[in-house]
Structure formats: C-alpha cells, structure tokens
Design brief:
By secondary structure, the protein is mainly α. It is 89% helix and 0% strand. α1 packs antiparallel against α2. It holds the Pfam family DUF6124.
Length: 46
C-alpha cells in the first residue's frame, strides 16, 4: 500500500506545478519515511 502511495504522489507531483507540486512531494516524503519505519520494524522481528 505504501508503494502505491509513493508512486501516486510522485506521478501527481511530476505533472503539477507550484503549491500542488510541493504538497504532492511532501506526501511522497512522508510515505517514504513511513515505509522506512515499517521496513525497519519488520527487520527487527526477523
């Protein structure tokens, strides 16, 4: 699910300008950070 959010945010940001682009890329950044935290948590379980 996070991969889908990351891809959608990237595509949205890539096709917009100005504030909309900034918002899309901020969503992209937050989703990437969430994915990194989930990945790290899963590594600790194994």
């Amino acid at each position: 699910m996070l991969r889908c959010i990351i891809t959608t945010a990237y595509e949205s940001g890539d096709s917009t300008q100005g504030t909309s682009r900034d918002l899309a890329f901020s969503v992209l950044h937050m989703a990437e950070m969430a994915k990194a935290m989930v990945d790290r948590s899963l590594e600790c379980i194994v």
